[in-house]
Amino acid sequence: MAEEAPFKPEIEIFPHRLPSDETVANFLLKVRKMRGITQVTLFGPRVYYEKIIKVSGKVVPLRIQVARFWIEVEGIDVLEKLKDICDETFPYGFSIKVGRFTKYLETVGDRLRGSSLILRTDFLKGEE
Question: What are the residue ranges in the chain where pLDDT is below 50?
Fold first, then answer.
């Protein structure tokens, strides 16, 4: 019997340009409809003003400029569908990798820098 990995794989999506807030919201709306995604982490440098996007009728405050998306998945079978969504959303190109990119526990440095935002899929579910 095969032993299960202690963590779920993640897919890193790295757009070749910094996406606008509208593009980030559009991407999250498309991703939220997919099955097999357990968590989405938005990663980028901290900004010193608060931006707000709306996803599924919910307000998401952004204190970062989104530069990468780390998407935790149940299996790698969602990779092709994610590539199709990225082709639609990021016409300027993107890089995609499979691995593990987030830490299991938050460090003191992470808490001080505040450089990522984690959205659970239950948060993304909701009205259009």
Answer: 1-2, 128
> Cα torsion for 36, 55, 61, 105, to the nearest 10°?
-10
Residue type, 112: L
For the chain, what are the domain ranges?
10-124
Domain 10-124 CATH assignment equals 3.30.420: no
- Spatial separation of the C-alpha atoms in residues 23 and 2, rounded to whole Å: 40
Distance set, CA 53 to CA 23, 26, 30, 66, 101 (Å): 10, 10, 15, 12, 24
> Residue 65: phi, psi to the nearest 5?
-95, 110
